[in-house]
């Protein structure tokens, strides 16, 4: 499917999802017009709501990049959730135990979180490359290991917080909050009051994570499209036997693909801890960021750049859904149904290509052209 056709189809799929959602709302006894109006107002009527939409979208964009990157290399990364958790753990440890100047401390903590996620992703890459273990199985298992490992580390004597449910707070020097403590000063308040809507926008936990997500999307896209490593990764994903015949180290590139996928998800966890929560919480199950990332990657057609608008759509629906739940008493599950329907319609071309194999010939032709060049 061509790029322009893909964009048009995705837009139609979103409209179809909203239309089917309208039917469900009518069956449930709610007015679709009122619900969608409140959904829109709950996102755009106040700068604070826009800020919270961005905050909600940021970790989903980064896990979406993680899944999309892996899919471009022929791997299905179910482990973005566990990599996200490990990134959160690494950033929280670095944010609390390291004593560094402000700014530098935040950068180092993000890098530590990225490394934790990358190494966690690389484990499944090694298992697949050298033991032939399917990455879907290994990453699902690693998700639960990451959750319980995080709980174990969080509860250790030197890291447990005021109660057993939380860890110690990160140091202020490691925070990714935009303006940080400055917005609480008299000069900061005066500056924000002079800009319409700024005080409401920055009263939230808006942080540098969204900018980091945009940079990571560009970085992932650039690696895949404009580097030798990206060509090798895509070649292995398309046909590992042909790639091996061409002299590409298949095992090494499988590990590298999962390393990069884990890195992006780990950064997602790091930005969430350093910019929003400020600490770790005891986890009794999956938080859902990694699984939401899979849906975002599908909507984005595995394009790292397209995960930005796809993640913003997800974040908007999730945050706006809370307003219709509180004001109109509409169950939040209906928003989840609408999201699921949108993902279903968007993924239909993949099902069509899977059963018909129509996409095979054009892709082969494209790869041959690249080799000849």
Structure summarized in a few sentences:
The protein contains 16 helices and no strands. By secondary structure, the chain is an all-alpha fold. Helix 4 packs parallel to helix 6, helix 4 packs across helix 13 and helix 14 packs antiparallel against helix 15.
Description:
With 373 residues, the protein is an all-alpha fold. The chain has a domain at 58-308: ABC transporter involved in vitamin B12 uptake, BtuC. Helices cover 75% and strands 0% of the residues. It has helices spanning 3-28, 32-44, 47-72, 80-97, 104-131, 135-154, 186-193, 198-202, 209-226, 228-238, 240-245, 250-277, 289-299, 307-328, 332-356, 360-372. Helix 3 packs across helix 13 (289-299), helix 4 crosses helix 12 and helix 5 packs antiparallel against helix 6. It is globular.
- Kindly report the CATH topology of one domain: ABC transporter involved in vitamin B12 uptake, BtuC
User: What series of H and E elements makes up the topology?
Assistant: HHHHHHHHHHHHHHHH
How much helicity do the residues have? Answer: over 70%
Kindly state the number of beta strands.
Answer: 0
Largest sheet: none
The low-pLDDT segments are 360-373
How far apart lie the N and C ends? 23 Å
Task: Explain the layout of strands and helices.
Elements lengths: L2 H26 L3 H13 L2 H26 L7 H18 L6 H28 L3 H20 L31 H8 L4 H5 L6 H18 L1 H11 L1 H6 L4 H28 L11 H11 L7 H22 L3 H25 L3 H13 L1
Helix pairs in contact: 1-15, 2-14, 3-9, 3-12, 3-13, 3-14, 4-5, 4-6, 4-12, 4-13, 5-6, 5-12, 9-10, 9-12, 10-12, 13-14, 13-15, 14-15
């Amino acid at each position: 499917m061509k790029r322009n056709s893909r964009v048009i189809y995705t837009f139609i799929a979103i409209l179809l999802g909203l239309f089917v959602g309208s039917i469900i709302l009518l069956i449930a006894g709610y007015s679709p017009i009122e619900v969608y109006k409140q959904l829109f107002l709950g996102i755009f009527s106040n700068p604070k709501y826009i800020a919270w939409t961005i905050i909600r979208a940021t970790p989903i964009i980064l896990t979406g990049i993680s899944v999309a990157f892996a899919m471009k290399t022929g791997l299905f990364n179910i482990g973005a959730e566990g990599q996200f958790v490990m990134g959160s753990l690494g950033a929280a440890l670095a944010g609390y135990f390291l004593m560094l100047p402000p700014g530098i401390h935040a950068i180092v903590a993000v890098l530590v979180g990225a490394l934790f996620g990358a190494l966690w992703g690389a484990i499944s890459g090694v298992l697949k490359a050298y033991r032939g273990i399917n990455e879907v199985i290994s990453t699902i298992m690693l998700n639960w290991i990451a959750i319980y490992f995080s709980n174990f580390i969080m509860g250790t004597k030197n890291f447990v917080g005021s109660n057993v449910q939380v860890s110690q707070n990160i140091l202020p020097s490691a925070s990714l909050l935009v303006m940080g403590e400055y917005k609480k000063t008299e000069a900061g308040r005066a500056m924000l009051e002079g800009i319409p809507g700024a005080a409401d926008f920055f009263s939230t936990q808006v942080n540098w994570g969204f900018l980091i997500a945009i940079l990571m999307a560009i970085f992932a896209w650039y690696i895949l499209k404009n580097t030798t490593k990206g060509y090798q990764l895509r070649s292995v994903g398309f046909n590992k036997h042909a790639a091996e015949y061409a002299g590409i180290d298949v095992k090494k590139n499988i590990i590298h693909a999962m390393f990069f996928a884990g890195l992006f998800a780990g950064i997602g966890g790091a930005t969430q801890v350093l910019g929003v929560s400020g600490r770790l919480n005891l986890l009794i199950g999956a938080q859902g960021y990694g699984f939401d990332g899979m849906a975002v990657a599908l909507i984005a057609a595995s394009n790292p750049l397209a995960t930005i608008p796809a993640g913003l759509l997800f974040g908007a629906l999730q945050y706006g859904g809370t307003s219709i739940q509180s004001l109109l008493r509409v169950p939040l599950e209906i928003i989840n149904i609408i999201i699921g329907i949108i993902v279903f319609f968007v993924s239909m071309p993949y099902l069509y290509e899977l059963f018909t194999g129509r996409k095979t010939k054009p892709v082969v032709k494209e790869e041959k052209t690249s080799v000849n060049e």
